[in-house]
Automatic annotation (TrEMBL):
Pathway: Carbohydrate metabolism; hexose metabolism; Carbohydrate degradation; glycolysis; D-glyceraldehyde 3-phosphate and glycerone phosphate from D-glucose: step 1/4. It comes from Oryzias sinensis (Chinese medaka). Residues 45-138, 385-582 form the Hexokinase N-terminal domain. It is an enzyme of class 2 (transferase). Keywords: Acetylation, Allosteric enzyme, ATP-binding, Cytoplasm, Glycolysis, Kinase, Membrane, Mitochondrion, Mitochondrion outer membrane, Nucleotide-binding, Repeat, Transferase. This is Hexokinase-2. GO terms for molecular function: ATP binding; D-glucose binding; fructokinase activity; glucokinase activity; mannokinase activity. Monomer. Interacts with TIGAR; the interaction increases hexokinase activity in a hypoxia- and HIF1A-dependent manner. Catalyzes the phosphorylation of hexose, such as D-glucose and D-fructose, to hexose 6-phosphate (D-glucose 6-phosphate and D-fructose 6-phosphate, respectively). Mediates the initial step of glycolysis by catalyzing phosphorylation of D-glucose to D-glucose 6-phosphate. Plays a key role in maintaining the integrity of the outer mitochondrial membrane by preventing the release of apoptogenic molecules from the intermembrane space and subsequent apoptosis. One of its GO terms (cellular component) is cytosol. GO terms for biological process: glucose metabolic process; glycolytic process; intracellular glucose homeostasis. PROSITE patterns: HEXOKINASE_1, HEXOKINASE_2. It is found in: Cytoplasm, Cytosol; Mitochondrion outer membrane.
């Protein structure tokens, strides 16, 4: 543990020295007193005993004071849902301790260790000995995927129902010893197999294992010899008590007898010890029997292994399978012919393959240590990733703080003496009321400031059959125009209007026009707006500080093709509010969560100190995107937010917007991914050119990646599309990063909205406010989680308000027309009054 203090990861070899592994299967059962095992021992005693053994071991190694990660080789069939949890399905081999089946052995062992209290251990991985073997071999040969002598396979995950997720590969312990327990091997089982099964501790179970494993091989030979002797085919019919004794012929004997050179001599010795006085012919026959039994074992193993390899081949969809099989087990290691026969048969059964067989050295122990080491590294890695993302996870009190600070900035924007240096500008819009349904007429609308520039014709009809009919055309604004001169920009806009009027056949109509211009503007009337500064992707020269309505009028004049009456300049938030208010009179707030982030609401005139008059209300364009530009959000901004800011067109500006709007979310994600990759947690530590490319991570990809319906494989496909070659683990991490970034965005946006609705409530001296917010923006509309988290946050942070959210349909177009209609009528009224 100490080596991890500075956050760096020790090298793999070093780590495995720190982990301590634990043998716990039959061949190593010597660690447990045999009696204790064979007796029907109780679960508690068993695990106490294991904990004691581990304690002794640590004592001997003088590591009792350290808290080491422990890998637990537990070679019994277990259901594993994660690395450090294993529910024993059933005991096999000689184990019987009661009360363990159906229990999580990690919990049991942890409990036993805790009870002792004399040392600490962290069980990080439960490993089957076969898996251990694969890991050991896998360390030397990365293609190692299977292990027959015990029984293991790594397989494409999508074929396994029990494990969640539909792809990626996971090591599967097939526990193929139980193959045949459903009767599927009945035609192959002999009377000898049945007899062995009947005499075993677990009749009817592990039938395949009983046909192939070393544990039963000697017994099989002995039973055959007994039968042959009984029938007078061997030993002149002599049957001795030794020959009749279970266990008198062991697998090592079978191995010895099958040795080509001294095999017959050994056979003579062994049989003589059984007291049967064999002839040379008997010895030959017995050798033959041994060969048949061990050959059958090798063949059966080959067949099952062949099936697994074929499946691997299918799963991978390759014409030729190249793989390595990790093998452990003394039958394979010690028997003179077994390995050769096995290799030969497997290759014959899976012809289109290059299969390598790799002997594992102490697979159980070393493998457990390695699984543990890997788990340890992953855990440490996961911890560091979580630590990185933790900065983005804001708790309620932090969010309440954001809300409080927004309130402060709102006040500063409204007050005369603080307005100048205020960051949240609270710009008056001269929209004094929401529509009442009496609006009527044909209007032109422009929508500039979003993803698309549009020109619209909006026909509003009042009366019983209220209706709004819209025609629109989308025009591109080339980036060189967006960032060229102001004159070029406005000439381009007028050119588009001209095209639209031609298209509609109404060049001569001189329609009233509403100009949705979604940038901060100082308005002195409905039709005058001085651009404070460009935001989002715009940067045209000679516009900041100018009245954009004037710039438009001048451009129309330059064109000399048509005349228009520019009645209103409209922020998109206001257009959105008006559109929704047309349907729902309680709508008094507008919100945009699209490329940018902004809101407006109906404020009391008496609070808007920058506009004369105290009667009634006026809609205020908050320009809340600039919230934080005075540093008031610095404590929650991360270094990734700073990097995004530094890379932007308007460094230091729109800090809140840069944390929560569509234009920037993908960039935040990209910055985090770059950092995680640098630290070696992603994309194999390789920062690709793609990842270095600004803007590749569009917010629509966040939406796709975060979609609940998308499987990891599809996430990987998306990343692939972006040119990012990811592993399964990478895609999980990327998805979490995206989710964390968009969640924070929705939350801080919600905190801002909570401040707004509470302000309205307090303005009116109410204990409870019912209010509707009109919302527009693709982030809000299409992201799979943004709106839900946003709503939750508003609800939690403004509990005294019942906020209803209404999606606006084309707020920028329809809203501009409605405002223009209201403006036209106001103008008529004013004219009448004069
Ligand atoms: P604008 O705000 O530019 O008027 P929109 O409301 O349509 O226009 O927002 C466009 C922005 O929405 C894009 O810049 C992008 O950041 C984001 N966006 C686009 N597609 C999606 C999507 N599928 N999910 C979430 N956000 C998206
Ligand atoms: Mg828009």
């Amino acid at each position: 543990m100490s080596s991890l203090k500075n956050g760096s990861l020790p090298a793999p070899t070093k780590r495995s020295q720190f982990s301590c592994h634990f043998f716990f299967h039959n061949t190593d059962a010597a660690m447990l007193e045999p009696d204790a095992v064979n007796k029907h021992l109780f679960c508690v005693q068993l695990f106490d005993h294991v904990a004691e053994c581990l304690g002794d071991f640590m004592e001997k190694q003088k590591i009792k004071d350290k808290k080491l990660p422990v890998g637990f080789t537990f070679s019994f069939p277990c259901a594993q849902t994660k690395l450090d949890e294993a529910v024993l399905l059933t005991w096999t081999k000689k184990f019987r301790a009661s009360g363990v089946e159906g229990m999580d052995v990690v919990k049991l062992l942890n409990k036993a260790i805790k009870k002792r209290g004399d040392y600490q251990a962290d069980i990080m991985a439960v490993v089957n000995d076969t898996v251990g073997t694969m890991m050991t071999c896998g360390f030397d040969d990365q293609r190692c995927e299977t292990n027959p002598a015990t029984h293991l396979l790594s397989e494409e995950l999508r074929h396994i129902d029990l494990v969640e997720g539909d792809e990626g590969r996971m090591c599967i312990n097939t526990e193929w010893g139980a193959f045949g327990d459903d009767g599927s091997l009945e035609d192959l089982r002999t009377e000898f197999d049945r007899e062995i099964d009947r005499g075993s501790m677990n009749p009817g179970k592990q039938l395949f294992e009983k046909m192939v494993s070393g544990q039963y091989m000697g017994e099989l030979v002995r039973l055959i010899l007994v039968k042959m002797a009984k029938e007078g085919l061997l030993f002149e019919g002599r049957i001795t008590p030794e020959l009749l004794t279970r266990g008198k012929i062991e697998t090592k004997h079978v191995s010895a007898i099958e040795k080509s050179k001294e095999g017959l001599k050994k056979c003579m010795e062994i049989l003589t010890r059984l007291g049967v006085e064999p002839s040379d012919e008997d010895c030959l026959a017995v050798q033959h029997v041994c060969t048949i039994v061990s050959f059958r074992s090798a063949n059966l193993i080959s067949a099952t292994l062949g099936a697994i390899l074929c499946r691997l081949k299918d799963n991978k969809g390759v014409a030729r399978l190249r793989t390595t099989v990790g093998i452990d087990g003394s039958l394979y290691k010690m028997h003179p012919q077994y390995a050769r026969r096995l290799h030969k048969t497997v290759r014959r059964l899976v012809p289109d393959s290059d299969v390598r067989f790799l002997l594992s050295e102490s697979g159980s122990g070393k493998g457990a240590a390695m699984v543990t080491a890997v788990a340890y590294r992953l855990t440490e890695q996961a911890r560091q990733i979580q630590q990185t993302l933790a900065e983005f996870r804001l708790n309620t009190s932090q969010l309440l703080e954001v809300k409080k600070r927004m309130k402060v900035e709102i006040e500063r924007g409204l007050r005369k003496e603080t307005h100048k240096e205020a960051t949240v500008k609270m710009l008056p819009t001269f929209v004094r009321r929401t529509p009442d349904g009496t609006e009527n007429g044909d209007f032109l609308a422009l929508d500039l400031g979003g993803t698309n520039f549009r020109v619209l014709l909006v026909k509003i009809r009042s009366g019983k059959k209220r209706s709004v009919e819209m025609h629109n055309k989308i025009y591109a604004i080339p980036i060189e125009v967006m960032q060229g001169t102001g004159e070029e920009l406005f000439d381009h806009i007028v050119h588009c209007i001209s095209d639209f009027l031609d298209y509609m056949g109404m060049k001569s109509a001189r329609l009233p026009l509403g100009f949705t211009f979604s940038f901060p503007c100082h308005q002195t009337s409905l039709d005058a707006g001085i651009l404070v500064n460009w935001t989002k992707g715009f940067k045209a020269t000679d516009c900041e500080g100018e009245d954009v309505v004037e710039l438009l009028r001048e451009a129309i004049k330059r064109k000399e093709e048509f005349e228009l009456d520019v009645v209103a300049i409209v922020n998109d938030t206001v257009g959105t509010m008006m559109t929704c208010a047309y349907e729902e009179p309680t709508c008094e707030v507008g919100l945009i969560a699209g490329t940018g982030s902004n809101a407006c609401y109906m404020e009391e005139m008496k609070n808007i100190e920058t506009v004369p008059g105290t009667e009634g209300r006026m809609c205020v364009n908050m320009e809340w995107g600039a919230f934080g530009d005075n540093g008031c959000l610095d404590d929650i901004r991360t270094k990734y937010d700073q990097a995004v800011d530094e890379n932007s067109l308007n460094e230091g500006k729109q800090r809140y917007e840069k944390m929560c709007s569509g234009m920037y979310l993908g960039e935040i994600v990209r910055q985090i991914l770059i950092d995680l990759t640098k630290r070696g947690f992603l994309f194999r530590g390789q920062i690709s050119e793609t990842l270095k490319t600004r803007g590749i991570f569009e917010t629509k990809f966040l939406s796709q990646i975060e979609s609940d319906r998308l499987a990891l494989l599809q996430v990987r496909a998306i990343l692939q599309q972006l040119g990012l070659d990811s592993t399964c683990d990478d895609s999980i991490i990327v998805k979490e990063v995206c989710g964390t970034v968009s969640r924070r965005a929705a939350q801080i946006c919600g905190a801002g909205m909570a401040a707004v609705v509470d302000k309205i409530r307090e303005n009116r001296g109410l204990d409870h406010l019912d209010v509707t917010v009109g919302v527009d923006g693709t982030l809000y509309k299409l992201h799979p989680h943004f709106s839900r988290i946003f709503l939750q946050t508003v609800k939690e942070l403004a509990p005294k308000c019942d906020v209803n959210f209404l999606l606006s349909e084309d707020g920028s177009g329809k809203g501009a027309a409605l405002i223009t209609a209201v403006g036209c009528r106001q103008r008529e009224l004013d004219a009448q009054n004069q």
